[in-house]
């Protein structure tokens, strides 16, 4: 392991994280941090040269379909019938409140 985990390092990390640790907690977390870094260090020895990079762990296929345009039903005036249910209509469309 290239980094020696000491109680001083644990206190410094706790200070950066704005944590107040007791002496017992510093001792406990120093040991835990040392074990975590030892495990991460052991992962560096794994040969991944023949492993392809992944963007997702599962190979997913997104089904595609053709876009189909279905024209709106029109009333006698040639306007879309759906506008009959609108509280207010503006320029042959739904009138909505401004957002800005």
Q: Mean of residue pLDDT?
A: 90
Number of strands: 2
Helix content: 25-40%
Main sheet summary: 2 strands, antiparallel
Unreliable segments of 5+ consecutive residues: none
Strand % is: under 5%
By CATH reckoning, the class of the domain at 7-43 would read: Mainly Alpha
Outline type: elongated
Please name the CATH architecture of the domain at 7-43: Orthogonal Bundle
* Structural class based on helices, strands and sheet pairing: mainly alpha
CATH fold-level name of the domain at 7-43: Histone, subunit A
Give the termini distance in whole angstroms: 57 Å
Radius of gyration: 32 Å
Note the total helix count: 2
Largest sheet, order of strands side by side? 1-2
CATH homologous superfamily of the domain at 7-43, by name? Glu-tRNAGln amidotransferase C subunit, N-terminal domain
SSE run: HHEE
